[in-house]
Amino acid sequence: MTTKLAFCLLLLLMTSVCRARDPFFVADLHRCRPAEDARVPWRLLGIIGREGRYHGWLLSPQGKLVRATTGEMLPDTAWRIASVEEEAITLASSLDCQPRLRLALKGRQDAENILAVADTD
């Protein structure tokens, strides 16, 4: 009788420890960083190329110049270059939890917007 009781107790303990994994339960709850930690301290310095074949130049927080091409990862980050356009680069998080970021060049369009506002006075 004691053997049966011990066996049942052991079986009960094993079923609670070795239960099947729920495939719909997200095990890694802290995989995404809070939005304030997800800032990209990279600066867009310029974009060269022609329609469909643009390349950007980014300055890393450590001061290194990095050539940016669509599909590449930014070194030492979780950001991938989603697209390089004529006046902007779009970054996507490889963690799929952060919104896309757009790094745009400042220049001609910003100057035109400032002049348009100045002319309305």
TrEMBL record:
Keyword terms of this UniProt record: Signal
Signal peptide: 1-20
InterPro entries the record matches: HofP
One Pfam short name: HofP
Protein name: DUF2531 domain-containing protein
Organism in which the protein naturally occurs: Erwinia persicina
